[in-house]
From TrEMBL:
It comes from Cryomyces antarcticus. Coiled coil: none annotated. Binds to RNA polymerase II (RNAPII). Belongs to the GPN-loop GTPase family. This is GPN-loop GTPase 2. It comes from the Eukaryota. InterPro entries: Gpn, P-loop_NTPase. Small GTPase required for proper localization of RNA polymerase II and III (RNAPII and RNAPIII). May act at an RNAP assembly step prior to nuclear import. Pfam families: ATP_bind_1. Keywords: GTP-binding, Hydrolase, Nucleotide-binding.
Amino acid sequence: MPFAQLIVGPPGSGKSTYCDGMHQFMGAIGRKCSVVNLDPANDHTSYPVALDVRDLVTLDEIMEAEELGPNGGVLYALEELEHNIEWLEEGLKKLG
């Protein structure tokens, strides 16, 4: 049975560190683990990302095109994800 963890928090709170540790742990016990990145500002991960919102939209592109700051850019990116929710649904289905 598949399950998921949703990791949220402010910048610098350890979300990526947690995801890296969980990915390593799951691999060590022989479990499949797929990490989905929904943060358009997260441009560096030390673990493989199976589905990445940055394939749809990046924070830098939004900030430049829409003349927004980082906070407005993240809100805009979330709206883009909402308008393209089928992209996320299809990507999650492919993960199994």
